[in-house]
Amino acid sequence: MKKSLHKIVLFLFTAVFTLCISNKSMAQKKDQMVRMSELEIDPAFLDQYKQILLEESEASVKLEAGVIAIFPMFQKENPTQLRILEIYADKEAYQAHLKTPHFLKYKTSTLKMVKSLNLVDMDVLDLATMPLLFKKLK
Question: Which of 93, 114, 115, 8 is nearest to 57 (CA)?
Fold first, then answer.
């Protein structure tokens, strides 16, 4: 599972890097939407939830032009506490994302697994550096 998770994380980093470099203007749009999702997952469903989330995040970045990043993370000391960095080209891309089959599958299949969800909209401090975020990743 750890090797698989590592491969998926590497894929997500690579996908975000590629999108940022190949479409610099999209990465620097002022109407871009950035959000941090804060979740607590029922421990009884943690492994199942992570697998569903990985499938959803990979599909979103791979299939949706307006999804710049969906980058899930969990706390090392408390793995039921997850954070998902979400970056969308704009609010329209976010609204379109909510209607995709992979997101709807994720949302409906994980409802009983999520103990709490807090969506925090963020403002970006340094838009100019965004395309360089993953340049050092090999």
Answer: 8
Model-level pTM greater than 0.90? no
Q: Encode pLDDT of 22-59 as tens digits.
A: 444 444 456 899 999 999 999 999 999 999 999 999 99
Q: Does residue 89 have a pLDDT over 90?
A: yes
- Give the per-residue pLDDT at 27: 43
Q: CA torsion, points 71, 68, 111, 44, in degrees to nearest 10?
A: -10
CA distances to 41, 49, 60, 107, 114 from 99, rounded to whole Å, are 23, 20, 11, 11, 20
The CA-atom distances, in angstroms, between 73 and each of 50, 83, 103, 122 are 10, 5, 18, 17
64, 15 Cβ separation under 8 angstroms: no
Query: What's the alpha-carbon Rg for the chain, to the nearest Å?
Result: 15
Nearest to 82, CA basis, from 112, 48, 22, 41: 41
d(CA 92, CA 90): 5
Q: Kindly give, in sequence order, each residue whose CB lies less than 8 Å from that of residue 54, ignoring residues fewer than 6 positions away.
A: 5, 8, 72
Closest CA to 42 of 79, 75, 71: 79
